[in-house]
């Protein structure tokens, strides 16, 4: 699915250069789950952005199903983002004036899906995250965990191959954290998604089949045979 070879990402700020990622090699197979941990500023979000085509590496290649994302034109990269990759962030960024279903539909607009089909698929995605009864609620009328589940529905409604989550439970209290994690876990299992998640939650990391620790731009991956 993914093969990263010697991937570096450098940010230049005036005279200062920051090596956010420093010559990383990594493979992620189709249907894998990779949990990413590490200290703040280590390069976790940078890695997710590169995997999702939100940014390009300074050097190195990021091959996704035979295509090097580092070499794609901006237009082609935009297409990959719209069709292949679903993103979930710590802050769910829902549009407050749109109801749950309309928020989910926004992911299908750039794909040219017709309104009737959009509504049907959005309702289905919301059902799959357990919000079939909340289609017409505004974000302000939903709990934090429910709002994050709307954001997850928005990420998966286009039926992406890859789901990337950057601290998806970071803004939630413990009950809601479990609720959101179990939704993500079951989507990963049921849909055969390739799933990469950054988390500070060590209980989640212990359960992960594969764990990557990123520290000062360097990565170390370990397999967990027990998971
Ligand atoms: N757009 C940018 N311009 C300049 N430097 C940046 C930029 N984005 C990230 N950095 C720097 O790159 C390094 C890695 O940042 P990154 O956001 O990937 O860390 P992180 O592991 O996700 O941290 P956190 O746990 O705090 O979210 C940091 O030193 C950060 O300051
Ligand atoms: Mg981060």
TrEMBL record:
InterPro entries: AAA+_ATPase (IPR003593), ABC_transporter-like_ATP-bd (IPR003439), ABC_transporter-like_CS (IPR017871), ABC_transpr_LolD-like (IPR015854), MacB-like_ATP-bd (IPR017911), P-loop_NTPase (IPR027417). It comes from the Bacteria. CDD domains: ABC_MJ0796_LolCDE_FtsE. GO terms for molecular function: ATP binding. Keywords: ATP-binding, Nucleotide-binding, Transport. It holds the Pfam family ABC_tran. SUPFAM superfamilies: P-loop containing nucleoside triphosphate hydrolases (SSF52540). Residues 2-227 form the ABC transporter domain. PROSITE patterns: ABC_TRANSPORTER_1 (PS00211), ABC_TRANSPORTER_2 (PS50893). This is ABC transporter ATP-binding protein. It comes from Streptomyces polyrhachis.
């Amino acid at each position: 699915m993914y093969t990263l070879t010697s991937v570096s990402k450098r940010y230049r700020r005036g005279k200062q250069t920051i090596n956010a990622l420093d010559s990383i090699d990594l493979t992620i197979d189709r249907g894998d789950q990779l949990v990413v941990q590490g200290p703040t500023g280590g390069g976790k979000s940078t890695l997710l952005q590169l995997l999702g085509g939100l940014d390009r590496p300074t050097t190195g290649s990021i091959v996704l199903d035979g295509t090097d994302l580092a070499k794609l034109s901006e237009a082609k990269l935009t297409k990959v983002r719209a069709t292949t990759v679903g993103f979930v962030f710590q802050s769910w960024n829902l549009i407050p004036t749109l109801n749950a279903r309309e928020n989910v539909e926004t992911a299908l607009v750039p794909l040219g899906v017709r309104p009737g089909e959009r509504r049907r698929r959005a309702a289905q995605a919301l059902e799959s995250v357990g919000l079939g009864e909340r289609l017409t609620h505004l974000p302000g009328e939903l709990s934090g965990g429910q709002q994050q589940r709307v954001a997850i529905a928005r990420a998966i409604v286009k039926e992406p191959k890859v789901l990337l989550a950057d601290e998806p439970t970071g803004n939630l209290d413990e009950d809601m954290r479990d609720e959101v994690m179990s939704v993500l876990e079951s989507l990963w299992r049921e849909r055969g998604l390739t799933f990469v998640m950054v988390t500070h939650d060590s209980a989640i990391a212990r359960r992960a089949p594969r764990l990557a620790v990123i520290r000062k731009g360097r990565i170390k991956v370990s397999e967990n045979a027990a998971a």
